Amino acid sequence: MRSLAVDVIKHAFSQRDEGKLHKRLYSAICRSILDGSLRPAVRMPPSRDLAEELGLSRNTVLRVYEQLQAEGYISTRTNSGTFVTDSVLDNLDASPEKQATRVNEEDYGSLSARGLELLGNASASPKQWGPFLPGVPDVVSFPHRILKKFYDRQTRQARPEHLTYDTVGGAARLKSALADYLRSARGVRCSPDQILITEGIHQALDLVTRSLCNPGDNAWIEEPGYWGIKNILRMNAVNFSALPVDEQGMVAGEPHRPAPRLIFVTPSHQYPLGSVMSLSRRKTLLALARETRSWIVEDDYDSEFRFAGQPIPSLQGLEEHGPVIYIGTFSKTLYPALRLGYVVLPAPLAASLKKIHNELYRGGHLQMQGALADFISEGYYAAHIRKMRQLYARRRQALVTLILTRLGSDYLGQYNSNAGLHLILQLPDGTDDVALAQHANNEGLLVRPLSRYYIGEDKTPGLLLGFAHIDERELEPCFNRLAALVKAVTVDKTVPEQQ
C-alpha cells in the first residue's frame, strides 16, 4: 500500500532538480520534517519502495536514511520499521509552531572591556610586506634550501614524540644549541634547562605577564615603546607607567611611581628610538629591581644587527643570578613566519613557567625545532647573520645618504645608532605624522608614525623606516616618492636642531 509519506517526500524532492541525488533527497526529507509535513512518529516509507518511486538506487536511499538517523531526524524500531523521531522538533528547536526570533547582535557581538580597549589600541599593520615596513628582515636572502635539507632529514627520521604536543619547553637539541650561541654571541648566562621555546616574542611576553602578574599589578615600560607590550598588559589587566627614554636608555627609579612587578626594556637597541642603555643605567636598573623585588624583562629583538663597533652585551649577562628574564626571537634573524622565539628564565622560574606554557599554549613544531638546531650547530645560523649584517649595513647607509641628500641632516633621528632594521626619520614639531603615514601607506609606502609609540601627550613626530628588506635598486625610487610626501607637509616648518 502506497503511504502518504512517499507522496510528501516525492513532492519535496521534485521541487529542486539541481545537485547530487543523495543531497537532493536528504534536503527534501529534512525540509518535510522541519515544516511539519512529516510529523513526529510518522512511519518512513521502506527504502526499496521509496527508491522505486523516485527512480533512485536503493543504496542512495539507504545512504540518506543512515545520515538522517545519525543526525537524529529518524530512528529505527526493531521489527517495526523507520519513523520520524518523536522529539525531533523539540531537539532541533525548530517546531513550525514556534516563532523564530531575530538574534540581538548587541547581545552576541559585545566584547569584554579589555577586548574593546585592545581593539581601540590595535597597531599591527594589515600589510606585512612592502617598502619601509619596520622590523622585517630580508626573507628572500634566507638560505631556505639549507633549512629545508635539515627539515627533510627530520621528517625522514620522524619519531612519535616529535609529532605530538611538546611538554618540556622545546626540543632539547635546539635549547642546547641556543645556550651555546647565546653565551658566545650575547653574553647570556644560562643552561639549556633555563630556555623555553615559544611562538615568537608576543607569546613569551604574554606568558611572563600572565604567570607573574595579578590583575591590578604595575609594570614599567619605555616611552616611547613597543605597542605589543602595552596591548599584552592591557589584556592581562596590568597597569603600566611609561618611563622616558633618552640617549642612555630608560630613565628609571622615579620615587613617585608605584613599584613595578615587571620592567620591560630593550637595552641593546631601544625600540623604536635606537639608543643604547648605558652601563650605569643598567646597574641602576638591576639594583632597583632587587630593591623592589621586580623582574626585568629584556627584549633583545634585533641586537645581532649592529653595524659599527662591538656587539652590545645583554643586560642578563651583567650579573650572575640577576633578576632578568631574557627574551629573543628568530623573526628578525631568520623570518617572521617561522614563529619561533625563546625565553631564558631565571632558574627559580624555569620549571613553573614551562608547565604554565604547556597548559596555556600546547607547544609543538618539534621537527622544525630539530632542523633549526642543526642549522645553528653546523654554523649556518652565524654565517647567515654575518651575511645579513653586511647587507643591512649597506642598505642602511644607502637610506641615510638619501635622507641627507633629499631632505637634510635635520631629518635624521636623534638617537639613530648604527644598528637594527629601521631608523627614524625625524619631522618638524607640529607635523601630523599619523596623517602623513596614512598618506604614505595609501601610496604603498608602509612607514609607521613615531607618535603612535607614545602614551603621554609629549610626543615627537617622526616616521619609522624599515630598510632591511628593500633591494638597493628599489630603495631610491621608493624614497623619492616618500620624500615628496614629506616635503609637501613640512615645507613651511623647521626641523629643530638636534642637541
From TrEMBL:
The keyword Oxidoreductase does not apply. Residues 19-87 form the HTH gntR-type domain. PROSITE patterns: HTH_GNTR (PS50949). Keywords: DNA-binding, Pyridoxal phosphate, Transcription, Transcription regulation. SMART domains: HTH_GNTR. The keyword Calcium does not apply. GO terms for molecular function: DNA binding; DNA-binding transcription factor activity; pyridoxal phosphate binding. PANTHER family: HTH-TYPE TRANSCRIPTIONAL REGULATORY PROTEIN GABR. In the C-terminal section; belongs to the class-I pyridoxal-phosphate-dependent aminotransferase family. This is HTH-type transcriptional regulatory protein GabR. The lineage of its organism: Bacteria, Pseudomonadati, Pseudomonadota, Gammaproteobacteria, Enterobacterales. The gene is gabR_1.
